[in-house]
């Protein structure tokens, strides 16, 4: 079977970047007329199937949609991901628009927008129902899921390696001398939170430490309306029986835990060390600055866009799940346990 010609094949044949070839084919500014003509001639000669219609290409650069839960639109995590996807799309001469929808997928306006604006691809970012994700994929648009996983949906996915991130967090605490390590999270909240919980448990086993059920708080942060509520952290922690350190499944959990501990006279990290997950910008401004597993937003965005462009050329290949390795950002919220410090004096 003859191999299908891809955008990369064209760029290698012409000695141009894939971004330049994409801009030429789609009528984007920044490419000379001579180069544009050469690209089209080569694309036709090589029987490249991704040549856009001349009229639509001349009007505007093709656009993709980022679809996100409306309640998450203003969150720093969402906006930074949108920023990096926008930059990655622009590098290929493409545009992106963000569309917020209710978490239950009840707003049909997104499907009207897809029919009206005819985007080249959909980036699905947020926690949606399996049914809603299936309906989006059934539009026939190239679909890439970011930071989530729908095990029953055959779709391309890019997400951080949450399991490995949690394992790395525990390793850091163990190396600092902690043997009584607690956990706060909600493994039902998302597949990512489930993997962080599993990574934590497996890391304790790897290091030969006890998974003390008194110190493992697998809470329920989602209420009956789908809203996230972290208040159980304040009311359900046993402050009379604390471990020497906590791994928190995300940074906001660590922020609330830190404030609650301080209100009860505990100091971080002198009394309790802690590590978060996501490395939100606000982590560096906490007191003390929070050690956190970095969510590799920029790299995930680049991989998602690259995967989308590849899928445009290769509709038949099996779907991919790309796990991006997170790294730990060390700050001042972890120190050796108090008893070990006293013994070393």
Automatic annotation (TrEMBL):
Keywords tagged on the record: DNA-binding, Repressor, Transcription, Transcription regulation
Superkingdom of this protein's organism: Bacteria
InterPro entries the record matches: HTH_LacI, LacI/GalR-like_sensor, Lambda_DNA-bd_dom_sf, Peripla_BP_I
Keyword Protease: no
Record carries keyword Repressor: yes
Occurrences of domain HTH lacI-type (ranges): 5-59
GO molecular function: DNA binding
SUPFAM superfamilies: lambda repressor-like DNA-binding domains, Periplasmic binding protein-like I
Name the record gives this protein: LacI family DNA-binding transcriptional regulator
Organism: Paenibacillus spongiae
